[in-house]
Each structure stands twice: as C-alpha cells, then as structure tokens.
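Re: the request from the purification team.
They wanted to know what the chain is likely to look like in 3D before they choose a buffer screen. I agreed to run a prediction and write the result into the notebook, where they can find it.
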Amino acid sequence: MFRCYSAIGVNRDGEFKLAKYEDLVYQLKRQINSGVWRAGDKLPSLRKQSEHSGLSLMTVLHAYQVLESQGYVVSQARSGYRVTPELKAAESHQQVAVSLTEKVDINDFVFEVLQAGRNPHMVNFGFAYPDPSLYPRQQVNRSLMSAARNLPISSTFDNLPPGNEELRTILAKRYATKGINISPEEIVITAGALEALNLSLQVCTKPGDWVVVESPTFYGALQSLERLGLKALSVRTDTITGIDLDALEKAFQSHNVKACWLMSNHQNPLGFTLTLEKKQALNDLLNRYNVALIEDDVYAELYQEGAPVMPVKQFDHSGNVMLCSSFSKSLVSGFRIGWVAAGKRALQMQKLQLMSTLATSAPIQLALTDYLSKCNYETHLKQLRKKLHERKKEMECLLTKYLPSGVNITSQRGGYFIWVELPSSIDAVDVFHAAIKQNISIAPGKMFSVTEHYNHCMRLNASFELNDKTVQAIMTLGQIISECMLANESTTLK
C-alpha cells in the first residue's frame, strides 16, 4: 500500500495507518523486546509467517529486512532469520537508538553528489536551497549597489568581529518580537550559517571529542565532524516526533559528550519540528549533563502558517545554547551571511573568527542592513511561505501519483523538503546514478548518516515550479524506482 504522510503522519485518506509490513515489524519488535523471541532464536520462515499472518511473501520479506537493517535480526544462508544472538532484547533496541562512529568519512560522497548537480540542464531535486526565483533579487541588488556607493572608509574596522553593529541590533530586535531575549552583544556575524556552526563546534570541542548528531542529519554536520577530527554519536530520530530523548540521555551517560548539533525546526532532511514541550525537555537534559547545544535554525522563517516556530534557545538561561542561522534559505543564498547567538561563548568565538576568516564581507553586511532597514522583509517572507507550501503540496500529489506502491512519502508542515523511503532492499545511490543519466538529481539517504540505516531513502527539494520538465522528471524518477524494485525482486526470489 502506498502511503503519503502529511505533517502529523496521516495517509492521503486522512487516517493514520501503517503499511502492512510495518505492522509486522512493530509486532515482532514488541515480541523480541518482551522476550517472546530470545537472542539467537530462529524466527518463523518467510512461508510460515506468510501463512500465519495472511501477508504476502514479499511483505514478510520486507518486514524481516527492515528488522535486519535496525539490528534486531540477522539473516543466515539457508537458515532464515534469527534474533541477533550477541544482544539481549533490551540492548538490541539501544544499539539501534545510538550509533558510534569514531572516524567520520562522508565528504567524498557528498562532494560527488553535489558536483553531479551542477549541470545547468539538471532538474535539481537534490538542490539544498529554495528556488532562487523566489528571492527578491531586484530589491536586494539595489541594497547592494547602495552599500557599494556609500561604503565608508571605516567599513573594514566597523565590520570586524562580532560584525556590523546595526545588523546585529536588527537581528536582536527580530528575536525580541518573538519573545526571545538575545543581546546584540552575543551575536556574531559569520560567512554563512556553516561558518557559524563550525565556529560553535570549535569553541566547545577538541579533536577526538564525542559530538551528538541526529540520525539522519544534515550532511554539513558530518562534514564538519570529519574535518575537525570529532567522533559522532548518531541518535535515533523519528520522522514525525524528532530525536529520541531517552536515547540521547543514554548517550550522555555512556560517553563524555561535549556538544550536540541538532535542528529543532523543519529539520533537514526529515522536516519535523519539535513540540515546545520537547524543546524544553531537551534544554533541561542538556543542562543536567552540561552539554553544549549547537542549534542549526536556518529554516525557522519557513513555517507554514500561524505562529512562528521557536528555537530551543528560548529556554536557555545558562548561555549554553549557540543559535545559528542565516539569510541563505529565506532571502538570498549567494550573499553567504549568517550569524550565531553565541551566549557565554560570544567573545571566545569572536577571537576564533578573527584568526580564521578575519571578518565577514563588509559590503554584504551593509547591503543586508540596508535591505532590512528599508524594505518589507516580512511581506517577502509571507509570500515565500505561501509559495513553498503550494509547490510542496503539488509535488506531493505528483509523487503520490507516479511513484510505485511500497514507497513512503513524508512531507511536514513548513520548509521545502520531502523525505522518500523506498523498500529497504533498494539502495537510493543506485537510483541517484540512474537519475543523473536522465539529468535528474536527488539527495540519497547515504548523505545524511554515518550508518547504513537510510541507504534506502532520499530527500527531494519541492521548492521549484512544476512545469512540463519537472513533471516529466517525477514520472521518470518513478520509472527508475520501479525498475530497481523489479530487479531486486527478481534477484531475491531466485
């Protein structure tokens, strides 16, 4: 059965229903965790389970493969499936919840995927930024020209760390309108959000330290860990409800974790937003174990409707949360201007930035200050949110129509990404390579994890206008996935 999840995890008929294979997965998980099936026990054969449950042979196989990918069972040649022998049932669940990676090695693959998307003829579903045509280019360009004409002689000194004072004050006032008390003095202007995030990592870790990331997570986080020689603790993250706080606390108890790099709003790649209650519980947990939070909040302005989404930072009274964001997703990507509300580490971060990049571009800081002072940023954001919502709903419908049965689609409120889960036996990297030959890019799940758990998933960008070319690309993508599924079924049943 094909399922298309909306923001609260319902199918297209408006009811929350699990696919048949998932019903079996959850049933067997409960039985394993309660001791019905013990470590090393052999599960019923595919045929016996099919007869007992009334499910097809392929549905049972899919369920067993999911359990295997999550560490609950192992397959043995000519012996079927057994409960993982070296783990107790309770430990099995914990192993799935937290994955350890002492050496992160993701950059080469990420580079390959991003380079493949540079072809100007590509239908770029793998693109990380919103459709550039949605940005107010004329207004921003006018502000840039005005800044260039009026650039003061003292601009170099005025825009040294922590950055342009007027721009920092504007940002502090924007946070104040949301009820978040952030002083301009703790804001550091950076060369994009990624520099803000990297500086945040550097001020609270040293090579060899453990850092928690979500699983799956933004690939930039994994690249940063790799570059800085940090170890990753990947904590299980639910598609709808977000990071597992119980698993996070176990990670804190078992390892000397120095920092967490997390997204609480419109998470990339899954798209969920944590509830306010969960954000507060997360903040309390971090305080209890004295772990710094690097909060990646670049999608905060892209909420769908109603009240703005709030960061974990709003609950922070210790200065232990570093809130990072930028204008790249909401206003203009090419300017590469971001910031971090660094809390108690603001001065330390300024000194570190002075040694690394010296300062963020003075003309660009002045241009953004000009735009935010003279133009109606809120009107632009309102139009952007509306357009992103419309385009994403349209793409959901097309994916529902053209992707084959057995594919799950998760589309959350806000943001512009759609998460697609293929049958667990399909490698999305194979889909990626086949799609690139057809001038279609996707972001395969392997980009977002140091484990193998999301190799059957992919992220799609739904911000682009759906014209004849993009509709045809979705149809072609559906054909590629169908061919991969058929080829896999033929191989499995031989």
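For the purification team: The first helix runs from residue 20 to 33.
Please add any questions underneath this entry.
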